[in-house]
Amino acid sequence: MTYSPETLIAPRFSRAAEGGVVSPNERALLRLIWRNPGMSRSEITPHIDLTQQSVYRIIDQLAERGIVALGAPKPGVGRGQPSPTLRLDGRHAYSCGISVNTDVIGICLMDLAGRILGEASVPLRESSMAEALDLVAEELAGLQRSNGLSPDSFFGIGFAIAGYHVGGTRYNAPLPLHEWSLIELGPLMAEFFGRPVWVHNGANTGTIAESMFGVGRYIKHFAYLSFNYGFGGGLISDGELLLGGNGNAGEFSGIYDAEESKRRPALQYLIERLNHNGVEVPSISYMRKYFDPNWPGVAEWVEEVTPAYNRMINAIRAVIDPQAIVFGGQVPSDLAQMLIAKTHIFDRPRYGVNRPGPKLIVSEISTDASAMGAAVTPFRAAFY
């Protein structure tokens, strides 16, 4: 039987008679409130295809369930009585995001309103899957205790892993994650944690985080470059994650053949170069924290990957035509700026006019974007 996290959602989160967590109209309202916290109830109707009467009725029902919080009225909006402001009520539910990278597992606890309640990480090197999951469970329990969170409000888990999708909840991960590869992660993690688990590629959850907490707040079409042990990414089209026919849209490394792949901007190769030049860099997490653009080997590596990098940037520009290309994943911001400085657009102006191109932007997410995006994934799936 096909795994479905929706069937594992606790009954307390479901609508009483109709089933499901929210209706399509409720979802549309919740998404609007998510994007515009503090919007008054009377301001909603022009932004949604519902009558004012329906809007008020639905909001009252959501408030009664504890999903929406009614705040102080906003004065001076329209005629009649001031209308209450609206926000998602974070107390209704919280989720956990787990992001498995080659060297570390990131953990992020988040409430329904998108507030980060706590973050932690578990080193992965030389740990088996079972050992690593036990450590994750310990960290999760600690975050729950420190926040005084009730198990009853624990909605679900977003689980992200580096690697490409091969079907169901199976992913083909890099060699350091071979034990996690080609197995059904969804039911395995759901049984271990006792909660519904939504599984994604780590680059996609990083893209989701950027969409909801970063540049996606003002840009609706962008490509996200995820620089990690390997190199991938994700795509946001009209504010929504684009998965593609096989769930692998944004696997930008796929444009390179076997030989070119060694010269793509994957951080595993930069670490090898640094270690060869006498700079002790034990992990990508370490490199991100302590990165120095003057380390011997950095400029040399940037020069080496520039041709492959530029071909990828121009392929994205030509095929996808995004408003922006975001440099994210685990890339240090100084390294991202070095790559941006090497960008060459293959443009051929016509009548002296160039084709419009995307802005190149360093990610606005300073924390673990993949874990952050994984944490919001259950809420995106069920609420907004």
TrEMBL record:
Pfam families from the UniProt entry: MarR (PF01047), ROK (PF00480)
Recorded GO MF terms: DNA-binding transcription factor activity; N-acylmannosamine kinase activity
GO aspect biological process, one term: N-acetylneuraminate catabolic process
Domain HTH marR-type: 23-68
PANTHER family membership: N-ACETYLMANNOSAMINE KINASE, ROK (REPRESSOR, ORF, KINASE) FAMILY
Record's protein name: ROK family transcriptional regulator
Species: Devosia riboflavina
